[in-house]
Design brief:
By secondary structure, the chain is of the alpha+beta class. Helices cover 18% and strands 26% of the residues. The chain is globular.
Length: 210
């Protein structure tokens, strides 16, 4: 079994507590929590059940998968400066270079091994090879990635982020597969290549990573 209920609960409590050390991206609120108009406020409001499909899962994920609990999926998080992402990597899978503009990220490997890293504003790369039980922090707003180098076994991780709305800029997609594509001449000059190569990249990135 990849996960048991006990593992999920204990690991989530651990990561939730430790994320308080990261930089939060949400403004302080004036009350205990934000109560949306017309929504009953009881225990159910503070409960999120969207991670249940991972409990008891066996084998490798069928695709690079992630389950997210931000304020969009879990409205009780609004204003509380925390959200969570569960990541499942097939053998050889990558979480491509991306940015969370409003939050630091604290990642805990719960199964397998991951190569992780980020690039700072001085263009310095920091990497680490993580084993099960290891943690790594990605500072807010910096480009980072995760890679399962194992070609035979899957890997799973839990990330907590210091914002209820961390945002996501997926660098390859945002550059080459936006709703209004950046002018090919701009891209070709920026990447010191030609327009034909840019077209090949745009075509390749028109399909999901899954």
């Amino acid at each position: 079994m990849l996960f048991t209920s006990f593992k999920i609960v204990s690991l989530m409590v651990c990561v939730f507590a430790m994320v308080q050390t990261s930089i939060c991206g949400d403004p302080d609120i004036l009350g205990d929590f934000i109560a949306p108009a017309g929504v009953p406020i009881n225990g159910s409001f503070f409960t999120f059940t969207g991670m249940r499909e991972w409990v008891g899962q066996t084998g490798s994920p069928s695709y690079f998968q992630y389950l997210r609990a931000s304020k969009d999926e879990f409205p009780a998080l609004d204003g509380l400066s925390v959200s969570t992402i569960l990541l499942g990597f097939r053998p050889g899978d990558v979480s491509p270079p991306h940015v969370h503009p409003r939050a630091s990220e604290l990642l805990l490997v719960v199964q397998g091994n991951l190569l992780v890293g980020f690039v700072d504003t001085n263009n310095k790369l920091y990497t680490s090879r993580l084993q099960t039980g290891d943690m790594f922090v990605f500072p807010k707003g910096l480009i980072h990635f995760q890679l399962n180098e194992d070609t035979k076994n899957p890997a799973f991780s839990i990330s907590s982020l210091g914002s209820a709305s961390p945002g996501l800029i997926l660098v390859p997609n945002n550059l080459f597969n936006t709703s209004a594509t950046i002018d090919d001449r701009v891209m070709a000059l920026s990447f010191k290549t030609n327009v034909s190569t840019i077209h090949l990249l745009e075509k390749a990135l028109s399909t999901p990573y899954n």
